[in-house]
Write a structure and sequence with these properties.
This protein is of the alpha+beta class and 88 residues long. It contains four helices and four strands, in the order E-H-H-E-E-H-H-E. The protein has a four-stranded antiparallel sheet, with helices on one face. Strand 2 and strand 3 (46-51) form a beta hairpin. It is globular and about 40 Å long.
């Protein structure tokens, strides 16, 4: 499992311009079972995605389709972790 930390490197006007396309991208990856949860950081400086992928390369390939990445609007930090406990 991975935590994807997205940090905006562009003006919010540019982020908002591609927000609908980003949401469609998220929806596609929820349907594929890759994304588990996502949301905005507070304050609004980026977002977080919890993702399932076989490996880092597979996830990076998925992230390359994000409009924010395509248009160089954000930086992406990936942290892999192995969940050992979860709420039921």
């Amino acid at each position: 499992m991975f935590i994807v930390s997205i940090t905006y490197i562009s003006e919010m006007s540019q982020i908002d311009k591609y927000l609908d396309a980003h949401i469609e991208y998220l929806d596609r990856n929820y349907e594929r079972g890759v994304f588990i949860a996502s949301g905005r950081k507070v304050p609004r400086s980026g977002g977080i995605i919890l993702a399932k992928a076989r490996n880092r390369s597979e996830l990076e390939e998925t992230l390359n389709d994000d409009p924010f990445k395509i248009h160089n609007l954000a930086d992406y930090e990936l942290t892999e972790f192995v969940p050992t406990k979860a709420a039921t």
